[in-house]
Amino acid sequence: MSRWRWSCLEDTGAFAAALVAAGPIPAVVYLHGDLGAGKTTLAREIVRAAGYRGVVKSPTYTLLEVYPTPLGRILHLDLYRLGSDDELEFLGLRDYLDQPALWLIEWPRPGAAVLPPADLECFLCLEPDARHSLTARSASPSGEGLLGALMRALPQEPGGPS
């Protein structure tokens, strides 16, 4: 497990750029954290770092947003409002399972029976000093590679991700 802390959007963007540079397509990234911890902001920055130039919308109400990027397809899911994993069937997720994509899944627990397993799990937290922290854990051999690349790209340093 590795941990970074940051206090501004630029640092969130730096983390997103490092993740994208690590070559995360295909990969599945679970984003855990309380409301306001920065999950959607991080997902938005990842989509932008992958080269998407359109509006990056939150999937809070639609549950799923799909972004074609120069690096491949990104699927951004927010399952906070999901009543049961049966609701995911209506999104047509099975159609995406066999296609390479970067999956960014906020609140994955309600859809665990249907979702692909995580390669990387990110636990975001808003700390009392108003800084954000992210603890990442690999959940597969591919996730180990991603985490290793992130650790090399974002060493602990004052004022940035640490």
From TrEMBL:
GO terms for molecular function: ATP binding; metal ion binding; transferase activity. The keyword Cytoplasm applies. GO terms for biological process: tRNA threonylcarbamoyladenosine modification. The keyword Phosphoprotein does not apply. It is found in: Cytoplasm. GO terms for cellular component: cytoplasm. Keywords: ATP-binding, Cytoplasm, Magnesium, Metal-binding, Nucleotide-binding, Transferase, tRNA processing. InterPro entries: P-loop_NTPase, T6A_TsaE. PANTHER family: TRNA THREONYLCARBAMOYLADENOSINE BIOSYNTHESIS PROTEIN TSAE. Belongs to the TsaE family. This is tRNA threonylcarbamoyladenosine biosynthesis protein TsaE.
